[in-house]
UniProtKB/TrEMBL annotation, chains A, B:
Its EC number is 1.1.1.3. It comes from Pseudomonas syringae pv. syringae (strain B728a). It catalyses: L-homoserine + NAD(+) = L-aspartate 4-semialdehyde + NADH + H(+). This is Homoserine dehydrogenase. It is an enzyme of class 1 (oxidoreductase). Transmembrane segments: none annotated. L-homoserine binds at residue 217. NADPH binds at residue 132. Gene3D superfamilies: 3.30.70.260, Dihydrodipicolinate Reductase, domain 2, NAD(P)-binding Rossmann-like Domain.
């Protein structure tokens, strides 16, 4: 029986003649690349651990070892056993250490991180970062400097954690004119929405639990207001459409005002509500927007639950693709940081002109196609109107929409709600420019029989 | 209003100082790379069309144009307007054309394709191919030759059409020890299973329709017997685990014997049946198997329907990821062929030693970890036993399983079927080595009260 588990015959000969058995030995003569890790928090600790644990596996791929030569750390990480690696409390010591080839920036934030990365570049070092805020806000400056110095700045871990979606768009789909990108790119937000739907809990209730569990920050603004997602979407849009990073033009709407009522109505209509980042290329310009979104329940992305992330990319040749995985966490994010290191190890000896451009497109051929203001974006809409139970309300509503060229796809009118005697009227519209919906909502709210604000949630079909 | 659509203020200045406006112009001084396309069938036609239509977009990314210098074609493709590009009826003319840098092999099959690719390599040309059979069966030979000559052989389009999954595993997940890969990697098979489940149709009925619609070949063996999927899985396993290509060791079981009864029972138990390729790394060796598989219905991959493909990859750092998209078709496959061309254009000027290795791992550090025979593979099982309606049958069944160390997860006993008076008994087992299930099935079939063969379908939970 045991002979079954051995290569035999032709295959054995094949092994013997062409491959060395067992462990990595092939390129042991090549010196390892020296890496400095700045920041030993969640991602830094994960990166250190993965580099240690999978050192052999990584070297078998990269053709050389990747050695952590120095770590800048202020607070020791209990999940990380550092023995033998020199540490410093000064991140700038890494950026200037002449021994170090690649600086890994994992301190987060804008200010020190920006200085650190620019200093590392200035010193001719390649940079790997997981810092979406830094790239979204200061990326244009950083990439310009990196080109000047002929170094690489890699940032796969900045978007969607362990999912190699930057690589997928920038290289895997490079044949395409990308039509749109849509993603669930904030795990905390998706966890909250999943709990609201599955357990009927309120936003505030789930948020409090997420904070207690450590999924959400003490200040959850970045997550629940969509700022974190907008950082990531800004990056995705740039590499998809070949435009400079323009975070300040992204439209951002959070999930804090979502009610279980809307979650349930959406469900009844065959939809799920997700906090979606959408970037779409149109003849007029680029839509760049983060907001709660109804998605048909039978779409794969509508079934991405809990803290998981997924990004859909629609290209003119590829059609729709989806990339799914853990969007955050110690080791998933480290997986992308280390993959970037392997990429840099391969590319660092190549002609800078022939490398994959930072933003996917050659820097001298980025497009000036403008980012559209939200009023000029187009989508379908879910509207919830609280109306008094009078005859003729529906006719008034329908006429307001029709006058503005807004076509209704379906209407669901619920029974009178006992506590307030109002009738919730739920409408789904066809696709239309947002300005028209704004006008319509204003007119609807002015109706005598309509009580309180009209709830508006965008709808995307993502075919 | 129109001023909203123009970059203004700081951003305008930014554009003017750093970027040229509008169309690609930056690298027009660099000569285009010259490509020869061999075969102008579905994928060849798609590749030609995408290269023409997206020429500007592609050059903006690649930094140089990609020009089709010659096409080898026997039968004209009505979907493809060739004007001005020289054609030949001799594929070998492409492999020897001194003008051509990259040969695109899209003729399919093993024999001529192998000769063509080897000839192209011999002549120092890089190769891009969509030919899974060629790579799975002759890849080791082809890659060895390519290394000798310092050329690249790229094959993203060989697996899962427009999904850049080769790149994802080989580069995007390079930090990981990959635990397993599982994929729906044959669109025809998935279309048939989807129709069987959604519409209660029989295998034969759906196959006939698929053939009429052109989804399935006149000889559907490769698709429905799992050979096409095994070719692709062989490639995925090599790049995931760093082992030579060993197609002859793959276990392959088709979907031809699946009944709607089993599809429905699976559904009742909360599962979907998919034709899955599974490659798993274990301490004993590598599992490499294609077969119908029950997957819990709430898994994303269980909801991949119709002709779509999806590949899950589980890494020790990344956790489970999933890559989804069109697995075949003119333009999705062309998307991957052209992405490979862009990659080759970038890498062709680099040091061959620093390129991404063909099989993800350095050729001198491939592993001799053996492929396990199917009897040594481990999975959970779905068993359907047709029993006479006698008391004590369940006890006999349970005792046969228990004696072989097979734990039962659940049992579903249906009512007596009217037409034959038999009771279908459906069992789900815990994970166990296949040899034990084989022994158990033999013993079960020998029972007096068991009628006909026991149906066995593997179950994977894919967490």
């Amino acid at each position: 029986m045991s002979s079954k588990f051995q290569p035999h015959g032709a295959m054995r000969q094949f092994f013997h003649s062409r491959f060395r058995f067992g462990c990595f030995s092939g390129s042991s003569s090549v010196k390892p690349v020296k890496v400095g890790i700045c920041g030993l928090g969640t991602v830094g600790g994960g990166t250190f651990n993965v580099l240690q644990r999978n050192a052999e596996e990584i070297a078998r791929r990269a053709g050389r070892g990747i050695e952590v030569a120095q770590i800048a750390v202020r607070t020791p990480n209990p999940n990380c056993q550092i023995t033998g690696t020199p540490t410093t409390s000064d991140v700038f010591a890494i950026a200037t250490n002449p021994e170090i080839d690649i600086v890994v920036e994992l301190i987060g934030g804008y200010t020190v991180a920006r200085e650190l990365v620019l200093k590392a570049i200035e010193n001719g070092k390649h940079v790997v970062t997981a810092n979406k805020a830094l790239i979204a806000v200061h990326g244009n400056e950083i990439f310009a400097k990196a080109r000047e110095k002929g170094v690489i700045v890699a940032f796969e871990a900045a978007v969607a954690g362990g999912i190699p979606v930057i690589k997928a768009i920038r290289e895997g789909l490079s044949a395409n004119r990308i039509n749109w990108v849509a993603g669930i790119i904030n795990g905390t937000g998706n966890f909250i929405l999943t709990e609201m739907r599955e357990k009927g809990r309120t936003f505030a209730d789930v948020l409090a639990e997420a904070q207690a569990l450590g999924y959400a920050e003490a200040d959850p603004t970045f997550d629940v207001e969509g700022i974190d997602a907008a950082h990531k979407l800004t990056i995705l849009a740039s590499i998809a459409f070949g435009i400079p990073l323009q975070f300040d033009k992204a439209y951002t709407e959070g999930i804090t005002k979502l009610t279980t009522a809307d979650v349930n109505y959406a469900e009844a209509l065959g939809y799920r509500i997700k906090h979606l980042g959408v970037a779409r290329s149109t003849a007029q310009g680029i839509e760049l927007r983060v907001h709660p979104t109804l998605i048909p329940a039978d779409r794969l992305i509508a079934n991405v639950n809990g803290v998981m992330n997924a990004v859909m990319v629609n290209g003119d040749a590829s059609g729709s693709t989806l990339f799914y995985g853990a969007g955050a966490g110690m080791e998933p994010t480290a997986s992308s940081v280390v993959a970037d290191l392997v990429d840099v190890v391969r590319a660092m000896t190549s002609d800078p002109e022939n490398r994959v451009p930072h933003l996917a497109f050659q820097p001298d051929s980025l497009s000036a196609h403008p980012i559209l203001p939200i009023e000029a974006c187009e989508s379908a809409y879910y509207l919830r109107i609280q109306a008094k139970d009078h005859p003729g309300v529906l006719a008034q509503v329908a006429s307001i929409l029709s006058e503005r060229g807004i076509n209704i796809e379906s209407i669901m009118q619920k029974d009178v709600e006992e506590h307030d005697g109002l009738v919730p009227m739920i409408l789904l519209t066809h696709r239309v420019v947002e300005q028209r919906i704004n006008d319509a909502i204003q007119a609807l709210e002015a109706l005598q029989d309509v009580v309180g604000p009209v709830v508006r949630i965008r709808v995307e079909h993502l075919n």
